[in-house]
Amino acid sequence: MSIDISVPNRRATVPVNVGGVVIGGAAPISVQTMTKTQTEDVSGTLAQIERAAKAGADIIRVTCDTREAAVALRDIVNGSPIPIVADIHYDAPLALLALEAGIQCLRLNPGNITDKGKVADIAREAKARDVPIRIGVNAGSIPQRKDLERGRGASIDAAAQNMVDAAMGHIRILEELNFRNIKVSLKASDVLTNIAANRKFAALGNRYPLHLGLTEAGPVDSGSVKSAMGIGILLAEGLGDTIRVSLVGQPEDEVRVGRQILSNLQEKGEGPNLVACPTCGRLEIDMFPMVKRVETALADVQRTITVSVMGCVVNGPGEGMHADIGIAGGKQKGILYRNGAVVASLPEAQLIDMLVEELAEIAAEDRRLLAEGKPLPRGLADREGSIRLPVTAG
After folding, report:
1. Helices marked H in 285-341
2. Model-level pTM?
3. What is the pLDDT of residues 56-68, one digit of tens each?
4. What is the per-residue pLDDT for 3?
5. Which residues contact 386 (CB under 8 A, 6 or more apart)?
6. Domain 16-264 has what CATH class?
């Protein structure tokens, strides 16, 4: 489910293969997330991975912070529908155990694994197994420089340079070991430092793929906004080959936001797109529960489709006509649109019921097509059948 973004002058990178998901080169941009469970809980972790995969995750990262977690990785890898990245901090020997468990990628933090001998052991084993290493630099976990105490602008620049220096130091260690199966992430918790670090790294001219994200972005609402800015600006500049939105929420929340970021940067988006009236004094129908019901129904729709839910007669008809399917409200009633044409005028209750029923049927058809290995159509043009209107339709 990786998404291809047509960005002018996208940065050229050498691709790496993470368990069949290609990152970099000409490959589409992939979406990653991370489990929030204790890795030792194999069944709980796999259940969370299944939900993330259903939401559209291409790759998922799993904490490996104990020997028990490393042992559990074997069953997790065998049961996972998507590639597993083992997240290693401080305890370098756990990386070797994770590799033995069959993980498809390693994430190492140069801020807390500094023993070159141990890194060499990891690199040799990863190379023998053809497993990429992500050098994951977090602004908060690398030694701070004295010049970070100066003014904000200087501090941002110095922090960004500190992150790049940490990444390049680790890259040089791996390159000296003739290991180049590398991807890199430079993450900060604030947007400006995050952007500055990735720009500085890209300006060096190397061709290692970039994993984008903000670390500790925050709760779902505010973190989604920060991530959209910190990731979206870089993507629009042609930087980035895979993304992870880090939120205080479930992995599927992170995937949903990540896919929305990618979709909004495409000329033709992927997946469902909900256009909803922000509401104002012109509102003539009960929008809030309507939008919630439609949003819930769209969670199971996989195809690219635009759905509009509008609450008045000013912008509603125009949005409805441009959507694949949608409604425009009036006084306790509204118009139902399909493929730009008016289907019916219905009472308010029937209006939303018909829309939700149609979306449920689209979701069911998407599941059937995917199970049969068939491509999903865009919109409703190729869909069999039509809306079954109630006898009271006017």
Report:
1. 287-298, 316-322
2. 0.80
3. 899 999 999 999 9
4. 55
5. 338
6. alpha beta
